[in-house]
Design goal:
The complex is a heterodimer of chains A (171) and B (471). Chain A has 171 residues and is α+β, with helices and mostly antiparallel strands. Chain A contains 5 helices and 4 strands. Chain A folds into 2 domains: 66 residues, Alpha-Beta Plaits (2-Layer Sandwich); 67 residues, no CATH class. By secondary structure, chain B is mostly helical. The chains are: A alpha+beta (171), B mainly alpha (471).
């Protein structure tokens, strides 16, 4: 990760943080990120975050699972090793539905979860620097990169919006 | 936009909690030396686990001739236990997925432990189909992989193979869903820890930071996983019921089986969740997070699903009579009044009669009665599977092959041992991970915390007065 000097304010309540984010946006200050102990509803539109497209990825993985299951069974039972079971046709579509369904769900879920961790840069053995240990407890953090935001402006914003603490850290 | 504060619903978090207090209450059990009660429970569970290892080892070494199955009764306690354990697992997914979609906030107090229960129950369930094969080292033959035997493929038209796919998919998806929910909470544990412990939880937390974009994706992922788990959980017990329903055995060959099995699965699963949660909330002092309101909600689900199961039993009897098919009629006559009449009446009493007590509100909110009934229901649901499997097989088309079955010490040992496996896993889980979802509890605090009830009179998100009262 590139070297970053970060100034951040810690808030005790998510409503205060939301107000600070609004104010920063109004002042055209570039927000580096917001960190919180739980998802804050109403934050995404303020930060102008686009809706996650992970469900589209999930749909594609699911379709892949559907095709894998259905085409494999079709090939195996009509081309590779056709066997008659109980006098039914080789290509007995209704009997393929349960496995097709299960593999659709399996591919969609596994694919989405793996995608989630990859695009978030998370995974086993990953260590990401955190700004404060209390962010996962009860503090709501608004962070600015000093390269883009004047430190005095940031401090003024934090004191005006009631941040409990203001700190700097190099990442 | 904050969640509206309902004035009608009871608080789901009591004790005037702050965010920090929630962290303290829910994480600290993982940081302390386990109390004596946990140690004793763990010793008992591991003892039973040893019984499991021994009896399974005995079965594998000597073969399934050590069981009392015979040519008439090919499935006994093994498949009964399998269906029982899978069914128990279903409540976890119902709570975590279906109640998420229905936006039931009370799920938040119990979903983590219920999902853990699902995973451990499916692990227990998975043992039985494998050991009942006899030659367990050939279990890999059930997977369709290019092999040197032709390649010879499994029969994709067989419900037993559908089961392999259903159970393994169910296990994988449940595990991923559960773990993804745990990642932010492991980060909370990590940020409070020092030394070696910090390293371990850093690994488990996957480097979680709580960034806004990550939370957004995390919520989107949870919702889609819930949406996929919902039909998945219904499909799993449906497919388990196909193991029976697609056969031509009178008493099994019925179209009512899928919904009846799913309702029974949820019924038994909720009973097991209640058994576990009532002990957990007492031992870990979680009464503020798993309130009487939670218990009452779960008892309502038990009453509903128990009644559905009861209707299904009666429908089966009616259809058997109405079909005019003598073999079907005999199968049900034999279930109720044949050599296994005691298991049929055990099932009827435990599953149909006993949950009706929950029509009375004060009984739904009675902890001791709930605990007692949760165990009664689990016994009843075990009887149900035994009734369906063993009693049906015992009286087949040929009276000359009629038989009776009772388990050997090995089969009893495997069943009791599987309880040891389950409780060993659950007890370890309760010490290494927060048993209540910390981040999710914090996210519902302002909507469901007791101190916020009756304070905010607006339903459009104005919570100004709430803050001032709180700070």
């Amino acid at each position: 990760m590139a070297h970053k000097e970060v100034i951040f304010g810690l808030y005790n309540d998510e409503q205060d943080l939301l107000k600070a984010v609004k104010k920063a946006k109004a002042g055209h200050m570039e927000i580096m990120d917001v960190f919180s102990p739980f998802p804050i509803h109403g934050l995404d539109p303020l930060l102008e975050l686009e809706e996650s497209r992970i469900h589209i990825a999930g749909f594609i993985y699911g379709m892949l699972g559907t095709l894998t299951a259905f085409l494999s069974m079709t090939w195996i039972f009509t081309k590779d090793w056709p066997i008659i079971f109980g006098g039914k046709p080789y290509w007995s579509v209704p009997a393929f539905i349960p496995i097709t369904f299960e593999l659709t769900v399996l591919f969609a879920c596994v694919g989405m979860v793996v995608t989630f961790y990859i695009i978030c840069g998370l995974g086993p053995g990953v260590t990401n620097p955190t700004l404060d240990d209390r962010i996962s407890d009860d503090k709501f953090c608004l962070a600015f990169d000093k390269a883009y935001v004047n430190e005095a402006d940031a401090r003024a914003l934090f004191s005006a919006t009631g941040a409990a603490e203001v700190n700097s850290k190099n990442l | 936009m904050s969640s509206p504060v309902s004035l009608i619903r009871e608080p789901l978090i009591t004790g005037n909690k702050t965010y920090h207090q929630i962290t303290e209450d829910l994480i600290s059990p993982t940081e302390k030396t386990p109390p004596m009660s946990w140690m004793l429970g763990f010793i008992v569970a591991v003892t039973f686990l040893a019984v499991f290892v021994f009896t399974v080892g005995w079965t594998i070494y000597h073969g399934i001739g050590t069981w009392n199955l015979n040519r008439t009764i090919g499935w006994g306690w093994d498949i009964t236990n399998f269906v029982w354990w899978v069914g128990i697992g279903h409540a976890g997914t119902l709570i975590s997925a279906i109640l998420l979609i229905f936006r039931q906030k009370w799920r938040t107090g119990v979903n983590r432990a219920a999902e853990a229960m699902t995973i451990f129950a499916v692990i227990c369930a998975g043992q039985f189909p494998i050991i009942h094969m006899g030659r367990v080292w050939l279990a890999i033959f059930i997977f369709p992989y290019p092999n040197t035997r032709g390649p010879l493929w499994p029969n994709f038209n067989s419900p037993l193979l559908w089961d392999v796919f259903a159970i393994s998919t169910y296990f994988t998806v449940s595990l991923l869903f559960w773990y993804t929910g745990l990642v932010p909470d492991f980060a909370t544990v990590r940020d409070r820890a020092k030394g070696m412990r910090k390293k371990v939880y850093n690994f488990l937390s996957f480097g979680w930071t709580g960034s806004a974009k990550h939370w957004q994706r995390w919520e989107a992922l949870s919702l889609v996983l819930a949406g996929l788990s919902t039909p998945l959980v219904l499909s799993v017990h449906t497919i388990v019921s196909f193991d029976f329903a697609t056969s031509v055995i009178p008493g099994w060959h019925t179209t009512i089986f899928p919904p009846y099995f799913v309702a029974g699965a949820i019924f038994s699963g909720f009973a097991m969740v209640l058994t576990l949660m009532l002990i957990t909330r007492k031992l870990l002092k979680l009464e503020d997070y798993i309130t009487i309101e939670h218990i009452e909600s779960m008892n309502k689900v038990i009453l509903l699903t128990g009644t559905i199961v009861g209707v299904a039993y009666l429908t089966e009897l009616f259809i058997a009579w109405y079909s005019g098919y003598v073999y079907e009629q005999f199968a049900f006559f034999n279930r109720a009044l044949g050599p296994y009449w005691w298991s049929y009446f055990g099932m009827m009493f435990c599953n149909v009669v006993s949950p009706q007590l929950f029509w009375k509100k004060s009984w739904r909110r009675n902890i001791w009665l709930t605990f007692f009934l949760s165990i009664v229901i689990n016994i009843g649901m075990w009887f149900e599977r035994f009734v369906i499997i063993a009693t049906t097989l015992a009286r087949d088309y040929l009276p000359s092959s009629w038989s009776y079955y009772s388990p050997t010490w090995v089969e009893i040992g495997i069943f009791l041992g599987s309880l040891g496996l389950f409780f060993t896993c659950y007890l370890i889980f309760s010490r290494v991970a927060p048993v209540v979802a910390v981040a999710e509890i914090k996210s519902i605090l302002k909507a469901s915390g007791n101190q916020y009830k009756g304070v905010s009179h607006h339903h459009d998100g104005h919570q100004e007065e709430v803050h001032h009262d709180h700070h």
